[in-house]
Amino acid sequence: MLVPILISVFLISVISLVGALALSLKEKILDKLLFVLIAVAAGTMLGVAFLDLIPEAVEKGGPNVFLYVLSGILAFFVLERFIFWHHCHDGKCDVHAFSYLNLVGDGVHNFLDGMVIAAAYFVSIPLGVATTIAIALHEIPQEVGDFAILIYGGFGRKKALFYNFLSALAAFVGVAVAYVFSSSEGFFTFVLAFAAGGFIYIASADIMPELQKEREFRKSLLQLLCLIGGIVLMWVIIHLFD
After folding, report:
1. Which of 67, 89, 190, 210 is most exposed, with the fewest beta carbons within 10 Å of its own?
2. pLDDT at res. 21
């Protein structure tokens, strides 16, 4: 059973390399696309948090789900304020703190993906394969958005690709933890809700304020549509492949 689980998790991790498509784009073209991709990323994060992670945590039960969500929001605030703080020169930072936060949040998300894939294979191989396909469809827009966030935050394109893939490997840690804590519903509920809190914080406290800096009405309207589109995309994927 371990071999198909590891193969599935590896394939999910490779999806993080879709950002390589951006490497073939000219820098000016990529810059024009960034504000759109960032808006989509914010929408997918909010969609994942409110339409997938939190409902799953509530379904698992327990009276402290929303306390766990709040703990995730506060934890990511602490990470940004006290751990991933960077000295800025002339009001500009070479690498924005939210880029590192996104790596942490995406790592937690990939960690959860690893746990879910392993749990599905525990039931049956067909269910494991179906779950892997669903997560793959779920991850593609998310990973493209994550790559855009890293570029927007100051990473070079090759460095962004490398760290995004490194974050994707957290799924293997999720597999290991699933083996150890597969009988603990309380732990799984906490991780789901905590990750949701992290994505809510990144989308609302970091990315959306960046979107508000755009002053041109046409571009702002396009960003709004992309933000809503990211949420709708997650809703469609979640309901089609639930």
Report:
1. 89
2. 67
